[in-house]
Specification:
The termini are far apart. The radius of gyration is 23 Å and the shape is globular. By secondary structure, it is mainly alpha-helical. It comes from Megasphaera hominis. Keywords: Membrane, Transmembrane, Transmembrane helix.
């Protein structure tokens, strides 16, 4: 057995052993399944590039099977199966030296399509509406939170107002579940790529980098999609068409997210022309812009301006 093969087996064995420990204590420590999912998404790409896709496949399948056999198949598939598939797909793409943007779009799109097919199959064969189940689950959590607050503050004058706010949450938040899931997958694939690139670069392995954020160009169709969402939202509310309103809310937030990303790229482009920023500073600015509402609005407006008037392209051409 050569040294490289022995090293790969040792690394895979250590990782699988660590995942089995996390799986064994997952019921007593609820955060362990989430830690295991992140480990699968971030480590499997490194395994695929360094040791080959066979080692990455074994390191991903064995923990999922152990968790499914020992505890709950649903927990295994939803927490670790999806993360293992994501990490494995990203790793294979990086091993074959595909463009990172292509990997991001292909992996995220495939996972979203598989999720849609799973939901359709669950409804057709078992009459289970996944969206309704999630809506009921979220409603139960909100009711439990309100009951706990009511018990601890029985004489509070804010109970009526809080109850109304909770009811609004039960109606609006479930409608955003499809959007949050899709965007969450896109962000998770992106983080998996970035973490794997960082770890592999630190180990002296050359990988194809992402294009700098300041050079990102989001297609202008997102503006048209945003306008379409506003029209759909108007028709849905004015005609009391609930399903159209729900689709409009998701499309609205989806297009607004990518327009805001264009604005973030525009801001970083302007800052870079004055003073080049370190990667950590750029990451901090991106997080602040996407989290704080007032900065989100500024980035959204700048994204619209850049998309409609092609400011960066015209500036570079000049």
């Amino acid at each position: 057995m050569d040294q490289k093969h022995a090293t790969s087996l040792t690394a895979a064995g250590f990782f699988v052993a660590l995942m089995l420990v996390l799986a064994f204590f997952s019921w007593s420590v609820p955060i362990f399944p989430s830690i295991g999912a992140m480990a699968l998404a971030f480590v499997l790409p490194v395994f695929a590039v360094r040791y080959g896709w066979q080692q990455a496949l074994a390191a991903g399948v064995l923990p999922v099977l152990f968790l499914a056999t020992l505890f709950d198949p649903y927990l295994a598939v939803m927490h670790w199966g999806l993360a293992a598939l994501l990490g494995f797909a990203v790793g294979v793409g990086m091993q074959r030296k595909y463009d990172p943007v292509y990997i991001l779009l292909a992996v995220a799109g495939t996972l979203i399509a598989l999720t849609v097919l799973t939901c359709v199959a669950a409804y057709l064969f078992w009459q289970i509406n996944i969206f309704t189940v999630l809506q009921q689950w979220f409603g139960e959590i909100v009711d439990m939170a309100f009951a706990s607050y009511q018990q601890s503050n029985p004489g509070s004058v804010q109970l009526m107002s809080l109850h109304q706010q909770m009811e609004m949450l039960k109606e609006t938040v479930p409608a955003l579940i499809p959007l949050e899931y899709c965007l969450g997958l896109v962000v998770m694939v992106y983080l998996s790529l970035r973490v794997a690139q960082y770890l592999l670069t630190r180990q002296g392995i050359s990988v194809r980098p992402f294009m700098p954020v300041r050079l990102w160009e989001i297609p202008r169709c997102m503006v048209y999609l945003y306008v379409l969402a506003l029209v759909m939202k108007y028709w849905g509310v004015s005609r009391s068409i609930d399903w159209l309103s729900m689709i409009a809310v998701n499309v609205d937030h989806f297009s607004a997210f990518f327009i805001t990303l264009q604005g973030v790229a525009f801001i970083l482009y302007l800052l870079h022309r004055r003073t080049p920023l370190r990667s950590a500073t750029q990451a901090m600015l991106i997080v602040i812009t996407l989290v704080i509402p007032i900065f989100q609005m500024v980035a959204f407006i700048l994204g619209l301006v850049d998309m409609l008037f092609n400011y960066r392209k015209k500036r570079e051409a000049a």
